[in-house]
Write a structure and sequence with these properties.
about 200 residues; alpha+beta
């Protein structure tokens, strides 16, 4: 279901549906709020994704990866089941019931998977998607905390590597991924626009 459908009823359904199908909230010991795994239709996820649509629109207009489509089309391009166990997960961080940051993992591209060999275990790669922190909450380390939560969830689901991409108009995201141990699969010394999508990878321990 698209975020447009849920967004129209967010206020009316928040109390009734928040947490439906979600894992029990947990504290990580470093932040005052709670983390939980939620379905894509959860009101907190919808709220974060609507904010992400607005940001993508401001930064990219109606073009993604060189294709003419809107931010909302981009956000809704994958079916919700790809972000649910056993394939993936969507994690949300909340304080007093308000979503402040979150992100998701889903199965990664075929080219980043590998079967086991006599000398190497299988490579199972998840792709990180929809990492987002509310603009008024940036500078608190929430994005890095979200990445740590996603990495832990990926390990629980049996993934060995992570893959992600970000765009040339998101230098803050590039800095985040470099800072949290991701290896760029592009030349970061080039002017950002010449690289197009910026892919990164990370091996999970």
């Amino acid at each position: 279901m698209s975020i447009a459908t849920h967004g129209a009823t967010r206020g009316a359904t928040r109390g009734a549906t928040r947490g439906s199908g979600s894992a029990a909230p947990v504290r990580d010991g470093t932040l005052p709020g709670t983390w939980r795994v939620a379905p894509v239709g959860d009101p907190s996820v919808v709220e974060l994704l609507e904010d992400l649509v607005r940001e993508y629109t401001a930064r990219y207009g109606n073009s993604f990866d060189g294709q003419p489509h809107s931010a909302r089309v981009e956000i809704n391009r994958y079916p919700p089941e790809r972000f649910a166990a056993p394939l993936g997960a969507f994690v949300v961080y909340e304080e007093d019931g308000v979503p402040l940051t979150g992100g998701a993992i889903m199965p990664g591209p075929a080219g980043y998977q590998a079967a086991a060999t006599p000398t190497q275990p299988p490579r199972r790669t998840a792709e990180v998607k929809r990492v987002w922190t509310r603009s008024d909450q940036r500078g608190r380390g929430l994005a890095a905390a979200t990445m740590a939560q996603l990495e832990a969830r990926a390990v629980e689901l049996g993934y060995t590597h992570l893959y992600l991409t970000t765009g040339p108009a998101q230098p803050e995201a590039v800095a985040l991924y470099l800072r949290t141990g991701y290896t760029p699969d592009f030349d970061p010394t080039h002017y950002p626009a010449t690289n197009g999508a910026h892919p990164f990878t990370k091996e999970l321990s």
